[in-house]
Amino acid sequence: MLVKVAALTLLPVVLVGGAVLNSSIMLVTVHNDDVRLSIPVPLALAQIALAFCPDEVKRIEVPELAQYIPYLEDIIAALQEAPDAVFVEVEDGNDHVRVYKEGDLLKVTVRASTDEQVTVQIPFVSMMAVVHAYDMEGKFFRTSRLVGALRAAPSGDLVHVIDGDDEVRIRMW
Fold this sequence. Notes:
It contains five helices and eleven strands, in the order αββαβαββββαββαββ. By secondary structure, it is α+β, with helices and mostly antiparallel strands. It has one domain (2-172). The radius of gyration is 20 Å and the shape is globular. The strands form two sheets. The chain has an eight-stranded antiparallel sheet.
């Protein structure tokens, strides 16, 4: 009898542990003079936690986006099929902004003359998952499906910001 009780008690721990181990992990790192933080966020655990949140956290209302959603899927699909290319490039003195496609990623790089650098890499598969997270009838995003869009991202950097000695990086594992 004791073995059955122990097994039933440990079952939720094993299930949640298994979900976390099989999950994508978003790693947020912050480095500056005073702080060195590394925060691993198991996305499966974030999705589980969202189930227990109040309703206002489970959705992000964006009614003005509804008119564009039908076109976004086609635009993203066309971008995926397009060859690698630079879409926008602006140079102003030592400041440089570039928006381009490389492989399965839409990339944005910003280099400022003040030692500021920003790099954002958005996987097309994640963009498509964001579009599918939108509820056309209710005109809102389901936050659990937005977390799922992050889980669709391949391993690597999503965001990397350097501002002098301060650095923030968000990457997927």
